[in-house]
Every structure is written in structure tokens, then in C-alpha cells.
Design brief:
It holds the Pfam family Polysacc_deac_1. By secondary structure, the protein is an alpha/beta fold. Helices cover 38% and strands 12% of the residues. Strand 8, helix 8 and strand 9 form a beta-alpha-beta unit.
Length: 278
């Protein structure tokens, strides 16, 4: 009798997961080089690239020693340019945050998003996830999309294929080990893409996501300037780039408390993209 109960419960859980997965495929994205086109993202300005860290004994150890083996990622077509915009009816925009998670800034951004019931994309660095797993779990639990932003935030165009794969794959592994799912999106640090990054991202089951509006908050230009850049760049399909780590992000935290309700009051629907089936 107990076995029948467990079997029935397991079937219900699997059915729920399948329904959620089907719902996630609704919607579309504007992809450069695909059926729908968009412009090319130029490398972003920013602080000097950090060199990839040498693997330590700790980093080489598996993060979890148990559980089922990882499933092979779904094969995707290799794009030549990153995705820049989202498509769809209405005034839809996507908010993205890079370089975290960071315990000093990420929780405040998550609090503001929760206050207005808005979902966003967080492109995380693996080395930051290791010390802040609870923030990654919170992101996922609150409906945000977690993307891969490499392990140490290096300039990929200066690295060989093996080094790039290590940066990307280790980050996908730590994301999966933390909350159970591998990321479906990837963003190259500094917006510096090359053929290897596109190829390896596709092999690892990730679509490349760039941005349309850069707040340049990494320059710490002032809260008012960040607000003006978001509000001035707002338009249907826009992808906004901000940062929740990598430096002093207190201006970003203050700015989002101002521009987020402004966008909502202006009729924008802040959403996250669904990856198009291939």
C-alpha cells in the first residue's frame, strides 16, 4: 500500500514538472542569425578583465558526491551573434544583472524585484556562487532566471578553447549542484564574444544573451545618471544590463528602487525570455 502511495506521488511530481517545462517554451526571442534578426552586441566597456584563477585543490573537488549522473545538455544550433532583444506583443522588457551573487547588494535587488512582483535574469560567476549558494537558491525560488557568466569573469577572446570550456562548464556545474538545474543562458564577460564561446555555449545547452541598454553602472556614475539611462532607453523588446556585484553597487540598488516603479507605471511588462525550442 505504501509503495502504491509513493508511486502515485512520484507520477504527480513528474506530471507537474512536465507541465512547467511545456509552459516555459511559450514566447519567443529575437535572435541574431536566426529566423528573426537583431543587431550585433559590441564588447562592453568596463574594468580590466581579471585573469582566470589557477585551479586549487578545493576547486578540483566535486561539489556533490552523490545523486544521479548529469543528463547531457540539449544540442542547440550555433549562433554567430548573441540575442539582443525579446519579441512579443506589448511593452515587454527584460532586466538582467551580472557578476553576482554578492551578499552586500544582491539581496536588496531581490527585495525590490519581489516588492513589485518582477522577474529578472541573473548572470552569475561560479566563484561567487560557491560562497553565496543561498542567494542562488533564492533567485531560483523567486522565479528569476539564472544564467552562466563564467567562473572568474575573464576576457574570453584572450583564452584558448580548453580554458573557455572550463570557465563555462564549471559554472554550469556549480549552478546545477546548488539548485538542481543547469543554466539555459550564457553571457560573455564584457560582451566579448568569439566563435569558440558560441560553439561551447551551444554544446553546453545555453543560448547567448547580450543586452540593448547598458546602465554603465560599473562606472559608478551616480544614481540619477543610472535612472536616466534606464528610463531614457526603455522601449519594447529592450534588454537592460545592470550589475549586482563586481564593485560598489550601492548606486544600482538605489536606482532600481526609482526606475522600476516608473517603468511599471509607464505600462512596461518586465519579464524573462523563454528559450525557443530548436
Amino acid at each position: 500500500m505504501q509503495k502504491d502511495h509513493l508511486f502515485t506521488r512520484r507520477r504527480m511530481l513528474l506530471a507537474g514538472a512536465a507541465a512547467a517545462g511545456a509552459a516555459g517554451t511559450a514566447g519567443a526571442i529575437l535572435a541574431a542569425g536566426g529566423e528573426e534578426t537583431a543587431g550585433t552586441a559590441a564588447p562592453a566597456g568596463g574594468p580590466q578583465a581579471r585573469q582566470a584563477l589557477k585551479p586549487s585543490a578545493f576547486r578540483l573537488q566535486p561539489l556533490t558526491g552523490y545523486g544521479p549522473p548529469r543528463a547531457a545538455p540539449r544540442k542547440l544550433k550555433v549562433r554567430k551573434e548573441p540575442i539582443l532583444q525579446v519579441s512579443g506583443r506589448g511593452r515587454r522588457m527584460v532586466l538582467t544583472f551580472d557578476d553576482g551573487p554578492n551578499p552586500a547588494y544582491t539581496p536588496h535587488i531581490l527585495d525590490t524585484l519581489a516588492k513589485y512582483d518582477v522577474r529578472a535574469m541573473f548572470f552569475v560567476c561560479g566563484e561567487c556562487v560557491v560562497d553565496n549558494r543561498e542567494l542562488l537558491v533564492r533567485m531560483a525560488d523567486e522565479g528569476h532566471v539564472v544564467g552562466n557568466h563564467t567562473w572568474t569573469h575573464p576576457l574570453l577572446t584572450t583564452m584558448n578553447r580548453k580554458e573557455i570550456r572550463s570557465e563555462m562548464e564549471r559554472t554550469s556545474d556549480v549552478i546545477e549542484d546548488t539548485y538542481g538545474d543547469r543554466p539555459q543562458w550564457f553571457r560573455a564577460p564584457y560582451g566579448a564574444w568569439n566563435r569558440a564561446a558560441f560553439q561551447l555555449g551551444a554544446e553546453l545547452g545555453m543560448e547567448p544573451m547580450a543586452w540593448t541598454v547598458d546602465t554603465t553602472d560599473w562606472e559608478v556614475p551616480g544614481t540619477d545618471t543610472i535612472i536616466d539611462r534606464v528610463e531614457g532607453g526603455a522601449a519594447p523588446g529592450v534588454v537592460v544590463l545592470s550589475h549586482d556585484a563586481g564593485g560598489d553597487r550601492s548606486q544600482t540598488v538605489r536606482a532600481i528602487r526609482e526606475w522600476l516603479p516608473y517603468l511599471i507605471d509607464s505600462g512596461y511588462h518586465l519579464t524573462v525570455p523563454s528559450r525557443r525550442p530548436t
